[in-house]
């Protein structure tokens, strides 16, 4: 076999191996851009706003295409669009009011009363009593609980989490975790209600059709969405609404605004059982 034939044979073999590897490891799944629904064109050049169902729309007289409404106008248009959708879908299961959520409407709690016996540390793993610690009460879990307790005491005045994930943590740690989570949810609440933060161009924000995240049903995702023509996650539907009714640009999956809005929506459905795929 001459050099040219050897080279050709080598290329064919390499191609076959690559193709076999692709067949063996390829999942067949690929990222697809979200579809955009087309709204009717106004003969007078006015703005036309479409609902997230991809069908219902309304012309805004007095606002030209490419312009923006006021927030009051945007709310009035959103309310009218939702009324029209409900008229056409009288049997649809729409939740007007989401379940109460402590994560959103959380009231400040007074600090716990001090223990009259003073702070105590948990016993060591082998059951040997420990000397009381000055670091406050410590909650234990896992084999490193006792070792973590001394570190909690040593860092009791630090402005960082002091415990170990699977070792020991204090009530102060729990307060840090709760406050951090609450701040994350509140940021999602802010973005959800702010057209500019969403990147919208016509003053429409998510809350105008979904007040307090009503009828978002995050517990039912993933599920097939007719508007998208495929199985979707909650973030896909958030982006669908941003791209269509809000007239903004989709957010990346790891965008802090996307994460915060997901946290806010899930917080509003706290206590609801997961039931993916439900319609």
From TrEMBL:
Gene3D superfamilies: Cytochrome c-like domain. It holds the Pfam family SoxA-TsdA_cyt-c. GO terms for molecular function: electron transfer activity; heme binding; metal ion binding. Residues 104-158 are annotated as: Disordered. InterPro entries: Cyt_c-like_dom, Cyt_c-like_dom_sf. Residues 109-122 have a biased composition (Pro residues). This is Cytochrome c domain-containing protein. It comes from Stigmatella aurantiaca.
